[in-house]
């Protein structure tokens, strides 16, 4: 008998609206879905479909206009900023499309910062960061600033930072969108490794290599999930 | 898009940045123009208050300090405005890079940004000028309700148009330089953040791990935004130094001028003489802070004489520190011109003219003088009996060069040993050795005695003195009351002058809060990323506040030290006591607390922004 997996993300009638001037833009329309622990979900769809907005809501970076979103049993609907910060720190590893590394911190410090805010002692955080950077072949770039790294290197640092606290849920936005084929392949390998480790992964992507790797693909269009396979 | 529409649209679309820059510039111009208007009114008021009183030297000190304070305020305004413009325009290097990268010609890009700069500067200057004027009217009305009597002067057309033009031109020059520099940069370089931040290729700066996370990140951020940090520290240090000079200069000048008066009159001094002479002496001494009328008297009238035996008996009273017996008279003092060789042209030149002045002349024994004046040159000595020490007002009114010239009193020539700050007869006095005055006037008897009492038991000493003069026509008068009047007069005058530096401190703090807002707006993306990673609000706020504190404390320490050092050299023989320094530190501490509170508002406001919005903010 297959082992029953707990739900990691449960979205119910999720709506998100933005008001731009006098215009109300509906980014997400009545979205309902569930992602179980250890599942690898890829989300596809055209630009403006609401993929990144959905990822931001799951990550507690934005709150829904209506509907509910529960991540590892925590309802993220009406929470204050401090709760969401603590939640992100404990449960979420976020890899942004534009990497979003802190410009005034070095690669090593960017990783260590994420660990220190999670409560790691500074010395241990630095040691573990060095180890993680070595594992992705970037130990020689430890003292470099984000602006001195290539796109692929920044992407890898962003991955290392997201995984530094060993979060149960990893959210990745277009990980190969800005990379060449070869560097993209390295990212695919990293995602495969995370899948093997049993992490819950939600990846927004157009890359077939990643889609093939995922357990399920949600296709979004105009703020709705139009296909799930 | 036209050359005009792009800058306007760009400014309106970058609402927050534009608002912060214009607000900071407006605060800077408002406060500076306010101080110029206000300083002008105070200057006029001080001139009214001290008109016909004070010695030339003291009036000069007042005008110098007030001029320096207003000049410093103006410099602070220009400096802060230039710094804000430089900071705001440096943030556009990336945009310049984007525009040149997509093919805009350099002239067009330059035109766009100059137009933006001009709009911001012009708007700030106009609003600042008008607000400064209204603030000045409001402040004067408020101060007058507290008992001051400051009158409202019309706009000074000799200063304000030039000040306004300076405020328009200097930021343009600074901003143009920054834009021109940005245009010289290759687009690829301009697009890289390492260029605008001037981050080093290798990170050499590290902080000990025992420091808290907030402190470490704040320190690293400051160290790595080194151009902006250095600019901020230099600018703020200068602002603090100028403010300290304005504030400390005023306070030190107050204490120093008070000390000059105390030294010239001395505490616990009593006069012994005929009532007419005493009344006349007190009148001449009071001219410094009030004006009354008395008739000149005949000082050689025998009824005014004080016998040698009485002076000898007074010397025997143990409670008297000094017995300064004098002959005083009022007569004309003439300038003696000097013929000398001009070292450059080798021809004979005449130094001085043939001016004269009705002067109070005092003959005294230099070694027994109770006074300890501030003297430029040397004081009288008993060996050179034909030397004179002049009051500052007399020296400036009848002499061209006191070092080279001589004076004539009762047909006798005197060399000039020095010039002193003396409130007696508003500085229109000459001190000569007693023997010389006896010789030229033919009067050998004293007509006035000054006694300096020991402060341990003055009432007992006074009663002993009264016993000695009992049965004569002589009277005794204490000078402490006159001294106190002078000191309170000086205090009132300085309190008016000190208002300007106090307002300049407020100006500096308001300008700094503008800087803080800009600092936060520049860093909002990095701060939002920290929040996205799970940093709590209080951690992020701590990072910002620690940065502000480090910058303000470092520049405060540098500025305060430089400012105090400069203030120390503003006046000869300055008096700097704990009492004069403590208020300066207290004012600065209050300013820092105020700044801390001011900086919290933009910080919290920025933190309330959604993380995603802040990350994507341009």
Integer-rounded radius of gyration of chain B = 33 Å
Number of helical segments with 4 or more residues of chain B: 19
* Order of SSEs of chain A: EEEHEEHEHHHEHEHEE
Whole-number count of domains of chain B: 2
**Portion in strands of chain A:** 25-35%
Query: Distance between the terminal alpha carbons of chain A, to the nearest Å?
Result: 23 Å
- Would you tell me the structural class of the helices and strands of chain B? alpha+beta
- Characterize the biggest β-sheet of chain A: 6 strands, mixed
Could you name the CATH topology of the domain at 7-101 and 168-228 in chain A? Rossmann fold
**How much of the sequence of chain B is in beta strands?**
5-15%
CATH architecture of the domain at 7-101 and 168-228 in chain A: 3-Layer(aba) Sandwich
Overall mean confidence score, pLDDT of chain B: 80
- Seen as an oligomer or otherwise, the chain set is heterodimer
Question: How many strand elements of chain B?
Answer: 12
Mean pLDDT of chain A: 88
The main pleated sheet of chain B reads as:
6 strands, mixed, barrel
What's the Cα radius of gyration of chain A? 18 Å
Shape of chain B: elongated
The DSSP helix count of chain A reads: 7
Q: Could you name the CATH class of the domain at 7-101 and 168-228 in chain A? A: Alpha Beta
In one word, what is the shape of chain A? globular
SSE topology:
The complex is a heterodimer of chains A (229) and B (618).
Chain A: E1 7-20, E2 23-36, E3 40-44, H1 51-58, E4 66-71, E5 74-75, H2 81-91, E6 92-95, H3 107-117, H4 122-135, H5 151-163, E7 169-173, H6 181-196, E8 200-204, H7 208-213, E9 216-221, E10 224-228
Parallel strand pairs in A: 3-8, 3-9, 6-7, 7-8
Antiparallel strand pairs in A: 1-2, 1-4, 4-5, 9-10
Helix pairs in contact in A: 3-4, 3-5
Chain B: H1 5-13, H2 15-50, H3 56-90, H4 93-101, H5 106-145, H6 160-184, H7 187-190, H8 193-197, H9 213-224, H10 226-265, E1 269-274, H11 275-286, H12 308-315, E2 320-336, E3 338-341, E4 348-351, E5 356-364, E6 374-377, E7 387-391, H13 392-398, E8 406-409, E9 412-421, E10 429-433, H14 434-441, E11 448-453, H15 458-469, E12 474-478, H16 480-532, H17 537-570, H18 578-607, H19 611-615
């Amino acid at each position: 008998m297959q082992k029953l997996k707990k739900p990691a993300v449960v979205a119910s009638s999720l709506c998100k609206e933005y008001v731009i001037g006098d215009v109300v833009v509906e980014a997400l329309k009545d979205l309902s879905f569930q992602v179980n622990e250890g599942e690898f979900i890829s989300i596809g769809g055209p630009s403006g479909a609401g993929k990144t907005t959905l990822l931001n809501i799951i990550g507690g970076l934005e709150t829904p206009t209506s509907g509910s979103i529960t991540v590892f049993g925590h309802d993220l609907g009406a929470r204050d900023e401090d709760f969401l910060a603590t939640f992100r720190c404990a449960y979420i590893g976020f890899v942004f499309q534009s990497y979003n590394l802190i410009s005034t911190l070095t690669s090593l410090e960017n990783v260590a910062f994420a660990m220190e805010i999670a409560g790691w002692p500074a010395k241990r955080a630095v040691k573990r960061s060095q180890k993680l950077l070595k594992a992705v072949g970037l130990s020689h770039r430890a003292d470099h600033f984000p602006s001195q790294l290539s796109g692929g290197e920044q992407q890898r640092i962003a991955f290392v930072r997201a995984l530094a606290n060993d979060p149960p849920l990893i959210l990745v936005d277009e990980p190969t969108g800005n990379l060449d084929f070869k560097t993209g392949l390295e990212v695919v390998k990293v995602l495969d490794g995370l899948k093997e480790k049993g992490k819950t992964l939600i990846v927004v992507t157009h890359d077939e290599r990643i889609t093939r790797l995922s357990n399920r693909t949600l296709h979004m269009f105009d703020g709705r999930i139009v296909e799930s396979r | 898009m036209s050359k005009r529409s792009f800058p306007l649209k760009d400014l309106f679309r970058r609402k927050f940045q534009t608002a912060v820059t214009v607000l900071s510039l407006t605060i800077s111009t408002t406060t500076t123009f306010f101080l110029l208007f206000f300083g002008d009114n105070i200057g006029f008021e001080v001139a009214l208050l001290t008109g016909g009183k004070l010695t030339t030297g003291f009036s000069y000190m007042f005008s110098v300090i007030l001029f320096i304070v207003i000049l410093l305020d103006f410099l602070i305004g220009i400096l802060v405005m230039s710094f804000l413009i430089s900071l705001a325009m440096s943030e556009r290097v990336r945009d310049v890079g984007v525009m040149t990268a997509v093919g805009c010609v350099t002239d067009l890009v330059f035109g766009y940004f100059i137009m933006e700069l001009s709009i911001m500067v012009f708007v700030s200057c106009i609003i600042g000028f008008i607000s400064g004027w209204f603030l000045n009217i409001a402040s004067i009305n408020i101060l007058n309700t507290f008992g001051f009597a400051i009158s409202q002067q019309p706009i000074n057309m000799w200063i304000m148009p030039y000040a306004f033009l300076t405020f328009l031109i200097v930021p343009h020059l600074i901003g143009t330089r920054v834009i021109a520099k940005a245009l010289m940069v290759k687009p690829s370089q301009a697009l890289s953040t390492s260029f605008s931040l001037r981050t080093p290729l290798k990170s050499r700066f590290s902080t000990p791990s025992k420091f808290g996370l907030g402190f470490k990140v704040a320190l690293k951020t400051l160290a790595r935004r080194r151009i902006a940090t250095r600019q901020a520290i230099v600018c703020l240090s200068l602002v603090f130094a100028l403010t300290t000079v304005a504030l400390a200069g005023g306070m030190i000048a107050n204490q120093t001028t008070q000390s000059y008066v105390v030294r010239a009159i001395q505490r616990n001094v009593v006069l012994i003489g005929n009532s007419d002479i005493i009344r006349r002496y007190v009148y001449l001494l009071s001219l410094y802070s009030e004006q009354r009328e008395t008739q000149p008297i005949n000082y050689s009238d025998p009824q005014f004489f004080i016998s040698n035996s009485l002076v000898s008996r007074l010397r025997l009273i143990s409670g008297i520190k000094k017995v300064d017996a004098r002959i005083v008279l009022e007569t004309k003092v003439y300038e003696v011109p000097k013929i000398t060789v001009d070292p450059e042209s080798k021809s004979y030149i005449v130094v001085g003219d043939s001016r004269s002045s009705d002067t109070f002349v005092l003959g005294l024994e230099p070694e027994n003088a109770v006074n300890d004046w501030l003297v430029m040159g040397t004081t009288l000595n008993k060996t050179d009996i034909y030397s004179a020490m002049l009051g500052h007002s007399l020296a400036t009114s009848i002499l061209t060069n006191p070092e080279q010239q001589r004076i004539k009193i009762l047909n006798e020539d005197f060399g000039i040993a020095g010039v002193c700050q003396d409130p007696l007869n508003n500085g229109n006095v000459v001190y000569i050795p007693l023997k010389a005055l006896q010789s030229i006037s033919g009067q050998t008897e004293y007509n006035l005695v000054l006694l300096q009492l020991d402060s341990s038991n003055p009432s007992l000493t006074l009663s002993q003195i009264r016993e000695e003069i009992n049965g004569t026509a002589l009277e005794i008068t204490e000078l402490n009351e006159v001294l106190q009047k002078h000191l309170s007069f000086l205090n009132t005058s300085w309190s008016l002058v000190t208002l300007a530096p106090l307002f300049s401190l407020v100006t500096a703090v308001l300008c700094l809060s503008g800087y803080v807002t800009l600092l936060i707006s520049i860093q909002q993306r990095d701060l939002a990323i920290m929040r996205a990673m799970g940093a709590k609000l209080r951690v992020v706020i701590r990072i910002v506040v620690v940065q502000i504190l480090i910058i303000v404390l470092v520049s405060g320490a540098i500025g305060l030290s430089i400012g105090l050092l400069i203030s120390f050299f503003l006046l000869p023989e300055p008096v700097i006591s704990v009492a004069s320094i403590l208020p300066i530190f207290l004012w600065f501490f209050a300013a820092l607390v105020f700044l801390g509170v001011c900086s919290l508002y933009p910080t919290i406001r920025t933190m309330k922004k959604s993380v995603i919005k802040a990350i994507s903010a341009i």
